[in-house]
Write a structure and sequence with these properties.
55% of the residues lie in helices and 9% in strands. By secondary structure, it is α/β, with parallel strands linked by helices. The chain has two domains: 93 residues, Methyltransferase, Methionine Synthase (B12-binding Domains), Chain A, domain 1 (Orthogonal Bundle), CATH 1.10.1240.10; 122 residues, Rossmann fold (3-Layer(aba) Sandwich), CATH 3.40.50. Strands 2-1-3-4-5 form a five-stranded parallel sheet, with helices on both faces. Helix 7 links the parallel strand 3 and strand 4. Helix 2 runs parallel beside helix 4. The longest helix is centred in the middle third of the chain and has 22 residues. 43% of the residues are buried.
Amino acid sequence: MELLKQIEELVVRGHIDADSRYPKDLSGQPGVREKVADALEKGISPQDILTNGLISGMKIVGEKYEKNEIFVPEMLFSAKAMKSGLNQIRPMLVGDVSVRVGTVILGTVQGDMHDIGKNLVGMMLEGAGFEVIDLGINTPVSKFVESARQHPEAVIGMSALLTVTMKNMKTVIESLRSNGLENKVMIGGAPVTQSFADEIGAEGYSLNANQAVSLAKNLMSA
């Protein structure tokens, strides 16, 4: 359907709405927000908009990022555009588990106040159909444990930008296991490596936001 393809393309271009000045050639023109509203008015289902407009657009964005055709700034604009559309249809999707790929609990570990990477991962996951529970920055171990207990099916994603705080990832995993919680854990951040993930018992490591989506899907099905 033409309108869904327009939404997909606007997500790829990162054009949020008519007030957005990015990208310059689309400034003043309808963006994702207007096109999603138009699609709803024309009777297109929220699930169709999600799957064939927003998610399909973010899939293309992820592929472009992997090929180095776009970079983090462009990816952030696309994620924000996708989220503007998602926010419009989310109330209509609440309770419809058929549209959810799974649940991911995200948080930056205790002592770390950085959240750009975490936020990008969260938006990419939402764009791929995941429900994201964002615990924020400087997240205490107890908060990860409490959330994992409430959502035993969820994958836990931890982020750290500092070498002095990434050790807290191990503390979280140890606390989860000592409390009998078996949630799969994936980690990421500038100082984090696959070998560190193996060392602390994390089930997955992601180098970037796009890989985090694929990893979360794999962990959900494992």
